[in-house]
């Protein structure tokens, strides 16, 4: 059966068509909700000189955005939908955030210790693999000892290893 034949078959099934329409309607509703919820951060980013449609526009860009980092840090603390928080965390996972966002990300991860693990929480821990510095080693070790961070343990170990390597490179010979 070809893909075209399968789609014809599915589209002739009223139940499948109904479920597909429901999924699309739910997707559009969520998209509208997220767009409205993201408006304050987009306004602050525009004031900082970044005209973006979403914080996700920063993710995987080759462009540098150092003056957006403080704006992203400010909004990291606010109660956004997990998808927006995930986008902020991913946008902070850049070298230019080192020294600016490290403790902000760490503090946010600590504030979320009692929440159910989600993608945004994992992304906060992952951001530390790029932005943590030697001054954060003891804090990361404490997170590794805390059972609430079991789902993030692997990425926290990587953050500790990288922060420790940065410490070794910075020590005088």
Helix and strand topology:
Blueprint: H1 3-11, H2 14-47, H3 69-76, H4 82-91, H5 102-111, H6 119-131, H7 137-145, H8 153-170
Helix pairs in contact: 3-4, 4-6, 5-6, 6-8, 7-8
Question: Would you write up a description of this structure?
Answer:
- There is one protein chain.
- The chain has one domain.
- It contains 8 helices and no strands.
- The protein has helices at residues 3-11, 14-47, 69-76, 82-91, 102-111, 119-131, 137-145, 153-170.
- The mean pLDDT is 90.
How would you summarize what this structure contains?
The chain is built from 8 helices and no strands. The protein has 173 residues and is mainly alpha-helical.
Notable characteristics:
single chain; 173 residues; mainly alpha; 8 helices; 64% helix; globular
Instruction: Please state the average pLDDT score.
Output: 90
Number of domains: 1
- Net shape: globular
Name the helix and strand elements from N-terminus to C-terminus, one letter apiece. Answer: HHHHHHHH
Radius of gyration: 20 Å
Report the portion of residues in β strands: under 5%
């Amino acid at each position: 059966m070809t893909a075209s034949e399968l789609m014809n078959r599915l589209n002739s099934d009223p139940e499948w068509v109904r479920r597909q329409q429901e999924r699309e309607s739910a997707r559009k509703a969520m998209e509208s909700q997220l767009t409205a919820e993201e408006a304050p951060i987009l306004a602050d980013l525009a004031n900082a000189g970044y005209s973006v449609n979403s914080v996700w526009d920063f993710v995987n860009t080759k462009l540098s955005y150092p003056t957006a980092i403080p704006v992203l840090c400010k909004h990291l603390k606010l109660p956004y939908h997990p998808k927006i928080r995930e986008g902020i965390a991913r946008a902070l996972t850049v070298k230019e955030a080192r020294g600016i966002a490290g403790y902000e990300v760490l503090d946010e991860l600590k504030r979320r210790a009692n929440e159910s693990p989600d993608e945004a929480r994992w992304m906060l821990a992952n951001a530390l693999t790029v932005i943590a510095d030697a001054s954060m080693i003891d804090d990361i070790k404490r997170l590794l000892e805390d059972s609430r961070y079991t789902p993030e343990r692997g990425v926290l170990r990587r953050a500790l290893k990288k922060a420790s390597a940065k410490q070794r490179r910075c020590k005088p010979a």
